[in-house]
Amino acid sequence: MPPSNSYHQAEPPDSPVDESDSDLEIDLEELDPHTLPGHEQAGSRSLLPQAQARGAAEQRAPRIALRTLRMGGLRRGAKRNGYGELGRSRDGGDEDAEALLRDGDAHDPRYSDGSARAGDDAPLLIQHGDERTSTGKRRRSFTGDSLRNLSLRRLPAFVFGAAADQGYDNNEELEREDDPSSSRQVAVGSSQSTRFPPNIISNAKYTAWGFLPITLYNEFSFFFNMYFLLVALSQAIPALRIGYLTTYIAPLAFVLVITLGKEAFDDIGRRRRDNEANSEEYTVVKFEEPERNLGSSRPMKKLKSAHARKGSKRFIPERDRLSDIQEEEEQTEGQGARKGPSSYVSEISKKSRDLKVGDVLKLTKGHRVPADVIILKCFSHESSVHKTHDESIAEDAALLLDHADEPGQGSSDTAGATDATDQGAAEGSATGETFIRTDQLDGETDWKLRLASPLSQNLATEELVRLRVTAGRPDRKVNEFAGTLELLPSRQDAINSAADPHDDGSPSKAAPLSIDNTAWANTVIASQATTLAVIIYTGPQTRSALSTSPSRSKTGLLEYEINSLTKILCFLTLAISIILVALEGFGNTQDNVWYVKIMRFLVLFSTIVPISLRVNLDMGKSVYSWFIQRDPGIPGAVVRTSTIPEDLGRIEYLLSDKTGTLTQNEMEMKKIHVGTVSYANDAMDEVAAYVKQGFHIATSADSSSNPTLATPSSSYSAAASAGATRTRREIGSRVRDVVLALALCHNVTPTAEEIDGHVENSYQASSPDEIAIVRWSESVGLRLAHRDRKGMVLESPETGRPVVKVRILDIFPFTSEGKRMGIVVQFLDKLHPGAPNLENGEIWFYQKGADTVMGSIVSANDWLDEETANMAREGLRTLVVGRKRLSVKEYQEFSAKYRDASLAINSRDAGMQAVVSQYLERDLELLGVTGVEDKLQKDVKPSLELLRNAGIKIWMLTGDKVETARCVAVSSKLVARGQYIHEISKLRRKDAAQEGLDFLRSKTDSCLLIDGESLSLFLTHFRREFISVAVLLPTVVACRCSPTQKAEVARLIKEYTKKRVCCIGDGGNDVSMIQAADVGVGIVGKEGRQASLAADFSIEQFHHLTKLLVWHGRNSYKRSAKLAQFVIHRGLIIAVCQTMYSIALNFRPEGLYKDWLMVGYATVYTAAPVLSLVLDKDVDENLTNLYPELYKELTEGRSLSYRTFFVWVFVSIYQGCLIQGLSQVLTEVDGPRMVAVSYTVLVLNELLMVAIEITTWHWVMVVSIVGTFLMFVGSIPFLGGYFDLEFILTIGFLWRVVAIGAISLIPTYAGKLIQRTMKPPSYRKVQGI
């Protein structure tokens, strides 16, 4: 239905609005036939030909008395002008109206639907800017119309252009950016005047523009990259040039290309995965303007004419007569009340990235919510979105008939919207309830109940465009929200941010919005009902995104350690250079001055800092990543950050989420204890037998239509209890009572779901615990068949017959403070009992809750504490169940007191709880204790034990409740059996926090269980003190943690301990923690892959983490440590040879191996064998799992330490001195013979050193060593420019090479054997060697 049209805006509308004829806006009291023709002539001059062409058709239309009354003046005016704008089509009117504005050449096509309005009114608004003309705000006067007509006649065309330019081309107004610090107004289903950020998920680290600057900065922040850049640049100076320029430039360029390529590849992968999430399709409800719908998707509607009465199916081509009548009527009724739709709805599909603020989503069960939304409607079927054609016809016919006898008096907004309200209420569920799962957002396993505001729930879907949402600025508080929902007279009023529903003097139609009306991004719809929701925050402004830290580049610890060693090597290079120049004396020669000599020596010794180190390490990382992704023991593993696989071998702290990571978030009823006997596993069959006996109802012909039902006091049938002993009857009675209590005391609703053509029954509730208990009660013989707000029906799963029916009198829902829930029910003895009456059935109060609160509520007993402790030790979540029978008088007295307490202004909650405690929660009969297990992920217990034995301290950070976290910590063996758990919760005072720290210092073998509130206090006031104590504890469990708290804890551990921290999670609430960690591991969760996408490594099960760390992490670190040191040795030994050569040449800075010999040594002749070290392994996989202590020694960093580094430096100096010194002694000081001997020995020495270092041979190693040797031998004939080829063919060359090589290698190998014998490494011990 078009909105009220007499309100002409001075400001530009924010989205397409309705076009209408100004003549139709005149109220009954102001009809003046003498002024209308003139007005119409002025207002519709350019529309005349089109209007005249339709005049005859208009006159043939059937008339209604009210229409005749209203249209009289128009008909008189139409004698000259036809019907003016009355009969023209909306779309054509838009084009004609645009013609009015084109004089100024200022028309914005986005606002074409409102153009005519600007053309008519802009001149008037310039002169009378303070006059308010909205029907909903002030009635138009005859004088105002006359002035408008005058102004339209007198002002020339250029003024129209100026006015249009002012009204519609103000880009600042139309395109103003969103200010995140201010609140926002969102017009439902319409385009917004403010530009909000796109709804895009991005885990990418770089942008197209920022990639090169950021990556180059990261690369050259490493000392040895900067060192080689300076060396390469120095070759541009002729005095410092030694050999080919490419010798120094090419390696650096190669390193940068490899590194940047790897970073680009990783980031492109992230973008591809982001694109998958951003391309997810969603159904959006599109609201079309009524006049626009003629040429689009809406079927034309027939009028209630003679043809319609005869049953003709023919459509009337023009629908505007009907719209105009609707328009007139809403004007007549005042206040913008409407009897026709404000829009016509259709469904379109949009990708997640294309969703905008104001879009209305249609969500069903299992849908991930793509942005932060406000829930508008929940209904159980889809009829509200698509009304049938027949329904539309019926509605329009009713419109024409219903108002024939209306007096036309003004009415309030409330009364006027009755039709829409009734229709909206009829089309969906009256409750407006839906459940969502938030475990991907806050880690809580309980389903959350969300409600549609009654204002929108009871509104027809077509009328949702009249709603406007006012929301606060975006923030990260996932558990808080405050906003307002307003119902305005028209869609245009909702779009216009300046419109105020209070201005018209009518009662405001506004409703408050709270967290209960929201669903944040990454939550999942859990209910069967269809949900309509409007988007209010998108992309980076969603709660989920604001709680997520930006991606950062991660650098492994090994890189920093090698960077430190490189600085030592650089200092060594500078020292040798200065010493050699000093030994010659700092005198200047004709060719060189002393500082140029130092610079030339620095270039000659640049191999000491090997640039090939980065190439080898990066290629090694790629090999490790390939191994991880191809490992059949870790199916689905993905390496998203290939720069840090070595850090997997250095983890000392593991921070894990609970929900979906350690647990499956699937509850199962494991045990029930009824005081004298406990049932579990196979014994549940006995419970089912008792239930079958207890609720056996004999069938009879006369009661088949209204059968007798069971109540708590009804006795066993004689047949069922015959032959049973008294003890067995007592146990049976207790079992029956506790099962009945569990089947009734809950907030579960049964639902039917169609899967693959057949209907399956399921349940929905806010707590998975309750669903598990109700499922269990169904398995033992009591199925919840029906539930609404007034009652419940239980039936037998075998027979399908109802056995219990109750009226719900009161419900006391579960709260985190009360830790219990209760229900008062009245049992009915007949399925159809007639009128409700308290006298007609037994009234019982059932309650279940945590043992800590129920212990004082139930009557005295001697077994409760012991049994709950036993179940808690098994990691089961315990609930104590009790009941109490109430007389009618007791219940009436309680009900009156409770009602009085609920009306109190002050201390209402406390007063209501006091009444419940006084009348109900006293001396309850203890029925039993239930034990529910939160199913753990596969192999969680052995995995945690193995990781603990590997020296890793495990923290569990969860957003779930304290009791839940405690149970999972025990059941998963995160807390050892008998280990003391020290709980700190609800801490608000600093002195109490200090006491808690003092206790922990005195008991460092305990487990700390702390909630988010207390953790926040510690992190604010006692950061250092808290973390210094917490890192000493074997286990810490933090509950009720926000995503930012998780990330803060991870950063705090890193800063304080300087150790490697690994974080693992599966939900969107874990992304911040994962990104803050040194190593982030994401598990592909059931509900989403956000954590997996943001992580460095992605796996599918928690137990895969053990292999990732203990096997792949250990291998990666040990291999890279060996590889790095060998590459340093390879560069250092050639630098030592250069030093010996320079000393022999009287300290001249001349190169020993030039050009190809230098390049070939680092690439062709040694690269493959050295790189093959990445395939080495010291033990097999079974031993690493059997002896996780092997992992523990890696955390100390012994594989690459200053000690091992200086051992390699010593070996390099020893071998370099011998090789170069003996080559010069046995051949010549300078010449091709000496170069041939020393270079050959050098290459063979490196090949044999690789062979000595290998622990476990691989065929690739053999091929690389043998192949490289053959390649070197084959290339000797081509090295005539450097070697004396004739000398190489002699025996003298051969014995010199063998002798020098033996002297170089044999002592080195002997020393290694002696060390292995005297002090064998750990891996030799476990191998039994």
Structural topology:
Blueprint: H1 36-43, H2 48-53, H3 55-59, H4 65-81, H5 90-101, H6 115-127, H7 142-154, H8 157-168, H9 171-174, E1 184-187, H10 211-220, H11 223-234, H12 246-278, E2 281-288, H13 306-309, H14 320-333, E3 344-351, E4 360-363, E5 372-379, H15 389-402, H16 413-416, H17 418-427, E6 433-437, E7 447-451, H18 454-457, E8 467-471, E9 482-487, H19 491-495, E10 510-514, E11 518-519, E12 524-525, E13 530-537, H20 543-546, H21 557-584, H22 594-604, H23 612-630, E14 638-639, E15 651-656, E16 663-673, E17 678-680, H24 684-694, H25 718-721, H26 726-744, E18 749-755, E19 758-764, H27 768-779, E20 783-787, E21 791-795, E22 802-812, E23 820-828, E24 843-849, H28 851-854, H29 864-873, E25 877-886, H30 888-902, H31 908-919, E26 925-936, H32 940-949, E27 953-957, H33 962-971, E28 981-984, H34 990-1002, E29 1007-1011, H35 1012-1021, H36 1023-1030, E30 1035-1039, H37 1043-1057, E31 1060-1065, H38 1071-1076, E32 1079-1083, H39 1090-1094, E33 1097-1099, H40 1104-1144, H41 1156-1162, H42 1167-1171, H43 1181-1186, H44 1189-1192, H45 1202-1226, H46 1232-1253, H47 1259-1275, ...
Parallel strand pairs: 15-27, 15-31, 27-30, 28-29, 29-30, 31-32, 32-33
Antiparallel strand pairs: 1-8, 2-3, 2-4, 4-13, 5-11, 5-13, 6-7, 6-12, 8-9, 9-10, 14-33, 16-17, 16-26, 18-19, 20-21, 21-22, 22-23, 23-24, 24-25, 25-26
Helix pairs in contact: 1-4, 1-7, 5-6, 6-7, 6-8, 10-12, 12-23, 21-22, 21-40, 23-40, 24-26, 26-27, 30-31, 35-36, 40-45, 40-46, 45-46, 45-49, 46-47, 46-49
